[in-house]
Design brief:
19 strands; 35% helix; 16 helices; elongated; alpha/beta; 8-stranded mixed beta sheet
Length: 488
C-alpha cells in the first residue's frame, strides 16, 4: 500500500525556523497580522514576508491559498509560503490549506509554523491526502516524499486530534491504490488476498468461492464472471467494535475489469474500466479506517469480486439467470453486470446479517455522469432518515452527493416477457432504472441507500485533495456517518 507521509507535531520553536530545511510555511490571517512565528520569519527575511502580505496579490487570495517566496534570504529553506487562513478556520478551509501545502512541499521536507491555529487535524488530513501519488509501476524509482513537521502550541492535543484523521487518510489511500491498480495486477484473487490481510488489524474476513456461491444459488453474480478465467469471489469483512447490536452493512461492486462481456464496450476509454471495482474499493477503505481507529460500531463489508470478459463460456444477451432471492432475470445487456453482482451480495447480506441498514456502492452507470457530471455521486434511498444522515455526512466531508428519485413508473420499465425482470430498462433514466433493479433485492424492513459513484470514483483532473485518478470518494463520508449515527 502507498504509505501516507508522516506528520509530526512538535512544540513551536522560533529559533529553529532559520535552520529549517526543505520548505517552510507560516499561516497568516486575512488581515495580514503576523503572529510571533511569522514575525520571526519576517525579521529573518528582512521584511519580505510583511511586504508580500501587504501587496495586491495577498488580497486576491481565498482562505487556504498561499503566496510563495523562492530561496528567501535569511532562511535555510529552499522556499517560503504564507498561507491565508483565519485563526479559527472552517474544516474545508483547513483541509484546503493542507492541500496547498502539499503541492508546495512536493517531495521535500516541510516545516509549518501553525502556532495555536484551530482545526489542525483537518489541516494535517488535507496535507496527507494531497501528498498521495501512485508510482509503483514506474520503472524509474520515485523519490520518497520527506515527512512534515507542524509546530504547534500544544503538540499532544494536536496529535490526539489528528490520530483518527490519519487512520481515515490510510483508508482513503487503501481505496485509491485499489482503484488505480491495473487489472492484470488486481485480479479477483489478488483483491481477495489484500482484503484477507485486514485480519492483521482485527477484522474478521471470510472468502466465499464459486462452489459456495453455487450452493447459495447466486446465479446472477456467477453469470457475470463465467466468461473469465479469474474466479469470482465474495469477501466478507466483519468489524465488531460495538456491543451485540446488528451491524450496518456496506456492499461494494468489485468488477476488476469490465469489457462489457458479449455486449462489448467501444475500444476508446475501455482502459478506464480497471476502476469498475470502485465500490468494493470504498468498502475496503472504510473497513480499514474503522479497524485503525478502533471504531465502536458493528459494520460488515461485503464485496462481490468478478471479471466481466467475453469468451466461449461468457453470458449471452437473452440468457435467463436465477438470483439467490429466487427471482429470474433476463439478461438484455451483459454490460449491465454490476447490478447482477450486487443483487446476490445484497440479498446474502440481509439474509445472513439482518443489518440495521444497508448501503451499496457501485460505479454502476454512465447515465449518472450525464446527470451529475464528476461533482456528485447519485444517492437513491428507500429511507429518508438514513438518506438525510448520509447527505449531511457527505456535505460535512466535502464529498459531493445528490439525491435522485425512485418510483413505480421507472420500475415498470424492467418488466420482462420471459422472466421476472430484465436487467436494463432502456436509455432514458438509466441510473434510476438501475437503482430500481437493485431495490427489488432490498427487503421491506431494510433501510437502504444506493450510491452510484461512476462519476466520482476516478477523475481525469486534479481535485482539491487528490491528484487525477482514483479519489477515494466515499470513505470520509461513510466513516463520518458511522461515527455520528452508529457508534455507541
Amino acid at each position: 500500500m502507498t504509505n501516507p507521509i508522516a506528520v509530526a507535531f512538535i512544540p513551536l520553536d522560533l529559533e529553529a525556523l532559520a535552520s529549517a530545511e526543505g520548505r517552510l510555511a507560516v499561516l497568516v490571517p486575512p488581515d495580514g497580522k503576523l503572529d510571533p512565528a511569522a514575525r520571526r520569519v519576517d525579521r529573518l527575511t528582512r521584511g519580505a514576508l510583511s511586504r508580500a502580505v501587504a501587496g495586491e496579490g495577498w488580497t486576491k487570495l481565498k482562505p487556504g491559498e498561499g503566496l510563495t517566496l523562492g530561496w528567501p534570504t535569511g532562511l535555510a529553506a529552499s522556499g517560503l509560503m504564507a498561507v491565508k487562513l483565519p485563526r479559527r478556520p472552517a474544516p474545508e478551509e483547513a483541509r484546503k490549506t493542507g492541500a496547498t501545502l502539499a503541492r508546495f512541499k512536493g517531495t521535500e521536507a516541510l516545516t509549518l509554523a501553525a502556532g495555536s491555529t484551530g482545526r489542525i487535524g483537518d489541516l494535517a488530513l488535507g496535507l496527507v491526502l494531497r501528498s498521495y501519488d501512485f508510482t509503483r509501476h514506474k520503472s524509474a524509482a520515485a523519490e520518497t516524499p520527506k515527512d512534515a513537521k507542524i509546530m504547534v502550541a500544544k503538540p499532544d492535543e494536536a496529535q490526539a486530534e489528528a490520530e483518527p484523521m490519519m487512520a481515515l487518510a490510510e483508508g482513503v489511500f487503501f481505496t485509491r491504490d485499489l482503484v488505480n491498480e491495473p487489472a492484470n495486477i488486481l485480479t479477483t484473487q489478488d483483491f481477495a488476498e489484500r482484503l484477507v490481510a485486514l485480519r492483521e488489524l482485527g477484522v474478521e474476513v471470510e472468502v466465499l468461492d464459486e462452489d459456495e456461491m453455487t450452493s447459495l444459488g447466486m446465479g446472477a453474480l456467477l453469470g457475470v464472471g463465467q466468461g473469465s478465467d479469474s474466479p469470482s469471489k465474495i469477501v466478507i469483512m466483519n468489524w465488531k467494535g460495538g456491543d451485540a447490536e446488528a451491524p450496518l452493512a456496506l456492499v461494494g461492486k468489485g468488477v476488476v475489469f469490465d469489457t462489457g462481456g458479449i455486449s462489448l464496450k467501444p475500444a476508446g476509454g475501455m482502459e478506464d474500466m480497471t476502476m469498475d471495482m470502485g465500490g468494493a474499493g470504498v468498502v475496503a477503505g472504510v473497513m480499514r479506517t474503522l479497524a485503525l481507529r478502533r471504531a465502536k460500531a458493528n459494520v460488515v463489508g461485503l464485496v462481490g469480486l468478478v471479471e466481466n470478459m467475453p469468451g466461449p463460456n461468457a453470458q449471452r444477451p437473452g440468457d435467463v439467470v436465477r438470483s439467490m432471492k429466487g427471482d429470474t432475470i433476463e439478461v438484455i445487456n451483459t454490460d449491465a453486470e454490476g447490478r447482477l453482482v450486487l443483487a446476490d451480495v445484497m440479498w446474502y447480506a440481509q439474509d445472513r446479517f439482518k443489518p440495521v441498514g444497508m448501503i451499496d456502492l457501485a460505479t454502476l452507470t454512465g447515465a449518472i455522469i450525464i446527470a451529475l457530471g464528476h461533482e456528485n455521486a447519485g444517492v437513491f434511498s428507500n429511507n429518508d432518515v438514513l438518506c438525510d444522515a448520509f447527505l449531511k455526512s457527505a456535505k460535512a466531508e466535502g464529498e459531493g452527493a445528490w439525491r435522485m428519485p425512485l418510483g413505480s413508473a421507472y420500475d415498470e420499465k424492467l418488466k420482462s416477457r420471459i422472466a421476472d425482470m430484465k436487467n436494463v430498462g432502456g436509455r432514458d433514466g438509466g441510473s434510476i432504472t438501475a437503482a430500481q433493479f437493485l431495490q427489488r433485492f432490498v427487503k421491506d424492513e431494510t433501510p437502504w441507500i444506493h450510491l452510484d459513484i461512476a462519476g466520482v470514483a476516478s477523475v481525469k483532473s486534479d481535485t482539491m485533495l487528490a491528484p487525477k485518478g482514483a479519489t477515494g470518494w466515499g470513505v470520509m463520508a461513510l466513516d463520518r456517518l458511522i461515527r455520528d449515527q452508529f457508534e455507541g
